[in-house]
Amino acid sequence: MYVYLTKVLGEGSYWKGGYVAKSTGGGQKINLLKDELSKGTYRPDQLVLFVDRVQHNSLYPEVKPGEKRYLNSGGFIGSVANLIKIVNHTHIKDDDDDQLYYTNIFLDPKLRNIDSGTLL
């Protein structure tokens, strides 16, 4: 039997992460995730599914079946241990670009396991 727990990060907080639908921003999402994971209430092997509500589908060409064209900072899954490493990799301001933050990690061969397609 599986137990799924959901948590809305930043609920009731003032958004300082920019207007991500029109420009860069979103660093606050990383900082909210970092704060949540740093509480020590999760097992290192526990899986986290992170999703946000911003829709960017209309900004990019259609991805055909089987293609993996775009890295998406708005939806990913990983172990708590790996996500802690990722969100603590370097400092990010709340209004910095979260997509660029994750892309830079992905493009660094030292931080990415190319064979398995995983980060860190």
From TrEMBL:
This is PLOD1-3-like GT domain-containing protein. GO terms for cellular component: endoplasmic reticulum. Residues 2-52, 58-113 form the PLOD1-3-like GT domain. One of its GO terms (molecular function) is procollagen-lysine 5-dioxygenase activity.
